[in-house]
Amino acid sequence: MSSDHLHALSGPELLDRTRDLVEAVNRAQAELARTVRVADSKRAFAGDGQKTAQSWLRGHGRLSKAAASQVVRNGRALEQLPDVEEAHAAGRLTADQVEVIAQITAPKYARLITAQGGSVAAVGQVLGRFAVDRPHADLTELVHQVLQRLDQDGPEPDPTEERFLTLVTHADGSVTGRFHLDPLGAQKVQAALEAHRQADRPAGDQRTLAQQQADALVQWADNTLAAGTAPLLRRTRPQVAVKIGSEDLADPGTGRGAATLGFGGVVSAAKARQVACDAELRRYLIAPDGELLDLGRSQRLATPALRKAVELRDEACVFAGCDGPAWWCDVHHVVHWLFGGETSLDNSALLCERHHTQVHHGFTIQRDPAGRWHTYRPDGTEILTIRPEPTDAEELSRAG
């Protein structure tokens, strides 16, 4: 429906349309969860070189990590919750409601329900009926109460099973997230944040508490990295990497969007110069004739300098549909060193551990003259993360 048609609708008509659209989204999410469940059971995602349904959904469906995980979890849980699945497929329950109810299908709670003479499906039926016309917060509270009552006499829960932290990186490199900590773990984090917050309270500070705590978290990271006590990432110390051309770094007239951060995101040349005031500067010549980047046949393993150059160019695993970050990756010889491949930038590629193994077992990668990476299955067909445009013949065939 066009914007003009929408503006022509009355308020009640718009609300009715909104309800219909929410139900349509719910029905589509139910069908997606069911389809992914069946595809996962048939290991269909392995055909595109992906280990899990989540990784395929992220790389090919462009879902966030949280959204992909929810689809897979809901699909598996709904197999044990037929009434909930029916209500979800009818559009009466949202995917978020299903995820809350699905907690009862965890092996621990499923065993407790059975031991007390009930069934997961029956408890799910009650929760589903409750959820249809109650606010999401009410459902969350009810499920929490059910889980607490099921395990009143159980052992103290493992705090590591309760904790989670999810970060979402946006296009500009900023990050938002959500997390949950057990009470003791939360106290430790709050104590550390409060110490950093109280250490940085200048006179006339107008920051909100939320802003102060965010600044304290960054200061905590600064101190940890500066102390050099953080674990190594791929044999190198974790560090804040900023990539910028030498001319932009030196030119005070260069403005925003000139520098790229190692974890993604773009900052201004001024911010890069600020970092450079207290940083180690390295120059990398990204060219096959540079001695630093072209080790020929004299050395098999990539040097730290070559690895850094490959990271600067590839940024992440180059296997189609994979979003594995550079610190998960190995430097792979595109043409194997045993078969005459040189240890050079042109013959190197970043591959995460799983896809490095895949490439050594039938899959292949190639980089075209424009610098784009292509991935091919063992049968020679290319793995595409975007559905190709249909040919004229295909369009005519469909129309017929």
UniProtKB/TrEMBL annotation:
One of its GO terms (molecular function) is endonuclease activity. Residues 305-357 form the HNH nuclease domain. Signal peptide: none annotated. Belongs to the Rv1128c/1148c/1588c/1702c/1945/3466 family. This is HNH nuclease domain-containing protein.
